[in-house]
Write a structure and sequence with these properties.
single chain, alpha/beta, 5 helices, 4 strands, 35% helix, 18% strand, disordered N terminus, ATPase_V1-cplx_f_g_su, ATPase_V1_fsu_sf, hydrogen ion transport
């Protein structure tokens, strides 16, 4: 078993999304900073470009304390190529809807993987 698989009960959920989504999760108590003062969240607005989203995603998947990454689907669309090539079990990547943009199951990373697996 790898170090990633030994997360335990202190594992974190990270969130990347619009301000409403991230704020909601922070109010629910998921906010955290690691030892190097890196947060487990990214608010994506019109000032954040796709390279910053991609860099944050890569940092989140490299962290050993993150078990799940929640990402608004419209944010995931900006790094779809990176998501499509992601093949790790932990952290799990879950696309979630946002308040303003409808959810499209045909774009969902997990659903597409399940369809590939099932044929």
């Amino acid at each position: 078993m790898t170090d990633k698989m030994k997360l335990g009960s202190d594992a974190l959920v990270a969130v990347m999304g619009d301000e409403d989504t991230v704020t909601g999760f922070l109010l629910a108590g998921i906010g955290d900073m690691n030892k190097t003062r890196q947060p487990n969240f990214l608010i994506v607005d019109n000032k954040v470009d796709s390279s910053q989203i991609e860099e944050t995603f890569k940092k989140f998947v490299a962290r050993k304390d993150i078990a799940i990454i929640l990402i608004n689907q419209h944010v995931a669309d900006q790094i779809r190529g990176l998501l499509n090539n992601y093949d790790q079990i932990v952290p799990a990547i879950l696309e979630i809807p946002s308040k303003e943009i409808p959810y499209d199951p045909s774009k969902d990373y997990i659903l597409s993987r399940v369809k590939q697996f099932l044929g």
